[in-house]
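cron nightly-structures :: item 1 of 1
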Amino acid sequence: MNQPSTFISAQVLSAKLGRSDVVVLDASWYLPGDQRDPQQEYLDQHIPGARFFDIDAIADPDHNCPHMLPSARDFAESVAALGVGCDTEVVIYDSKGLFSAARAWWMFQVYGHHAVEILTEGLPGWLAAGLAIESGQVTAVRAESKFVPERQSGWLADLESVRLAIEDDRTLVLDARSASRFAGEEAEPRPGVRPGHIPGSVNCHYASLLTGDPTRLKPLVDLEVVLTALGALSAESVITTCGSGISACLLALALHELGRSPVAVYDGSWAEWGGRPDCPIARG
């Protein structure tokens, strides 16, 4: 718990705007039911100089699950086009305060770029502070230093590693979905995906780690209480999962803030597991 925080305040970021070694990324993303267009909202207003990090586009185009992690080569090319080099300080935000920014942060962790911060309270916090905004597209200039991805396997779990984990008492699988989805009491939003959860997994709705409006992580002492009660701080290893790999990254972020990292995120999450007839499920 003594490691530096991942978060940066609006005031500190404001003083860094315009520096060639700092790139700001809007990683807003919404659930289909929100009926919001993050890219249009970015064009309408964003932090000056910010580029749009499209979670649905910076993804594996050949996988049948949504926004799966792209290959190292594709990720490197995508972020290089946004102006990110190996020496770049990256600051990420979203339009909810704290939600999908955690996914973009996690993607950088997987590929070994750790000079990444998340804006406290996101765009809403920036606006509340009365700081400048702009609209329209931003033309990114490629960084002088080339982004070279170095895959960090400890941050990523696939289906087979989860199969092994549920047979291993030393590994805790944490599910960030709501209690009703975890219990299988409501239909899944994606066609062909069964309701329920991974056998042996434990529910930790991501909202239980957030506070405020706009949202931000709860104080570390409160996070510690929640995650200790679930066994997440005593387990030998932890894998986080959710509906499609977005909110699972919030659980990984919270554990990281408590000094527990790397934390593996099951990228395919329930969209993959629940859609596979050969994967066991539990309900209740």
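cron nightly-structures :: done
The chain has a mean pLDDT of 96.
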